[in-house]
Each structure stands twice: as C-alpha cells, then as structure tokens.
Design brief:
The structure is a single chain. Strands 1-2-3 form a three-stranded antiparallel beta sheet. The N and C termini lie far apart (65 Å). Strand 4 and strand 5 form a beta hairpin. The chain folds into two domains: 160 residues, no CATH class; 74 residues, no CATH class. The protein is mostly helical.
Length: 306
C-alpha cells in the first residue's frame, strides 16, 4: 500500500515525490501568511488566494521557460522533453519574473496598487522558497562544490551526494535558512512600522535575497550561464542595484548616501558574475556588506523627515 524511498512515496502504485509535496506545502503556507497580512495592507480578504491561483501556474511556466532558454542545447534535439517537468528544470528567477508579471496584470484588472500586492507576496514568496528548497535535499540537487576538508564533511555545512559518493556544500540549506530569516525580518520590521511606503517590503526582499543569492550561487555546480556570466548572480545584483536607485529616487534628492549606495552593488555586479573575484572572497563580502549598509542608510528618513 505504502512504500517509502529516498525521494518519493508510493501510494497504491502512484509515486508522489517529496519535492512536489514540499512545493505544495510552501504554497499553502504562503497563502496562509498572505491571508493574515492582507487586511493590514488594506486589501480585500480574497486577495492572497487570488494571487496564488493566478500567479502559480504563470510562475511555473515562466520558471520552465527561463531554464530551457539558458539550457537550450539540452532540449533542441528533443522538443517534447521541454514539457517533461518530472525531469526537473525550474529556475526560481523565471518564476519570480512570471509571478511579478501576473501580479501586475491582476493589479490592472482589479485596479489595486501593484506595490501593495507585491508587498503582500514578498514574505509569502520567501517562505515558499525556504520550504521548497528542502525538495532539493530529497532530490540531491542544487548542491555546491565538493568538500575536500574532512572537518567540513557534516550537515548542515555539507551534504553527502550518493551519485558521486562525495560531500558537497549544502547550498540548498544555506538558501533555505536565509529565506526563513528574510521572512522573520520582513514581518518584524513590518510590525515595528519600519516600512513607510508601498513597495518597501518587496524592495527589501529583493535586497536581502539578491545579496544572498549572489553569494551562494557562486558555490553551486548547476548554475545557468550566459557566456561566462552566472545569470542568477548577475540578475540578483542588478535587482539590488535597481532597488538602491529606487530608494535614492524616493528620497527626492541624492545626498551622500544616495551617491554611495549604488557603487558597491555596481562593483559587485561587474566583478562577481564574471568571476573576476570569488563570490565569497573578502572583496565580494565587503561589497555585499557595504551595499546593505548604504541601502539601509539611504532608506532611513532624513533628519527633516523624522
């Protein structure tokens, strides 16, 4: 009746993968979180469920399309395999971009502020990522480079991969833990009224996730490339740079932090994805830290606004 394996459970002969279970659980928890927050954002009670029903299928299609585009050589000779999702091949950034497009269309149809909807979705998205990443653990994928030092061969720093009988850096766990932290920080800052304008929750999600992904992506062995550039690293840092520009624009003037804020993000964007410096080198870590610090200082209200 029931049979358990490493990556799935068989129920009456039907194989249900843990990855799918965790994705569904992440979606459910995200919808429940949105339902608790939608009133605070002055949104109708059905908004969270509507967004899930509309955004999820669009996000899946776009996540697949994004992956196929950058791995076209693996699909060009067998086009039907594009539709075989059981073989894997979904890219989170494709899903985020597709979901954002669906939210925008929904905002136009329902005549609701796009940034308020983005604020509603951001913590739920981070929560779904945090839970869903554990599907990579069961599938033994999205791991990092091989670990060569015996002192590091233990979880959660590393994970043992059966395919090559080797310990690898547990990049799926790093991202899951960081996304849980993002959820906690966004909800805490929202409760403490740190966010002042529409879109602030979403923008801070982009900064916090973008910096983490830029660092962790460089450790992975399955990155998508555009020439020599790691696509997810470049897109992460480009999103961070764009948010820095938004904060400066919202402030209404380019003060000292407005001028400094984009510089470390721009430097990281140039150096890290092209591998001119390591993703976790002292220089890269300093650029990430400066980006976060300057973004925070730029976000703080001017003395005349306090």
């Amino acid at each position: 009746m029931f049979h358990f394996s490493r990556n799935s459970i068989d129920v009456f002969g039907l194989s249900i993968h843990y990855y799918g279970i965790l994705i569904a659980l992440g979606v459910l928890l995200g919808v429940l979180l949105a339902a608790r927050r939608q009133k605070r954002l002055n949104l109708p009670p059905e908004t969270g469920l509507d967004l899930a029903l509309i955004c999820l299928p669009v996000a899946v299609v776009c996540a697949r399309a994004y992956y196929v585009i950058f791995e076209w050589s693996a699909y060009k000779d067998d086009l039907l395999s594009i539709f075989n999702l059981r073989r894997g091949g979904l890219a989170i950034y494709g899903g985020v971009l597709g979901g954002a497009l669906a939210v925008f269309v929904y905002s136009r149809i329902k005549k609701r502020p796009f940034l308020s909807l983005a604020d509603l979705a951001a913590p739920s998205l981070a929560l779904g990522q945090a839970v869903g990443r554990w599907g990579n653990f069961f599938n033994q994928e999205a791991y990092g480079a091989a670990v060569t030092q015996p002192s590091r061969m233990h979880f959660p720093l590393a994970v043992f991969i059966d395919a090559d009988q080797t310990w690898h850096y547990a990049t799926f766990f790093y991202e899951s833990a960081w996304c849980f932290l993002i959820v906690a920080l966004l909800l805490l800052f929202e409760r403490r009224r740190f966010f002042r304008k529409r879109g602030d929750v979403f923008f801070w999600y982009l900064i916090l996730y973008g910096l983490e992904r830029a660092a962790v992506e460089g450790l992975r062995t399955d990155s998508l490339y555009w020439g020599p550039v790691r696509v997810s690293q470049a897109l992460s840092l480009l999103a961070v740079l764009a948010v820095c520009a938004v904060f400066a624009r919202r402030r209404g003037r380019f003060g000292k932090w407005g001028l400094l804020c984009p510089l470390p993000a721009l430097a990281a964007l140039i150096l890290v994805p092209t591998r001119l410096t390591g993703c976790l080198s002292p220089l890269a870590l300093a650029l990430y830290a400066l980006t976060l610090l300057f973004a925070f200082l730029q976000y703080l209200p001017a003395s005349s606004e306090q």
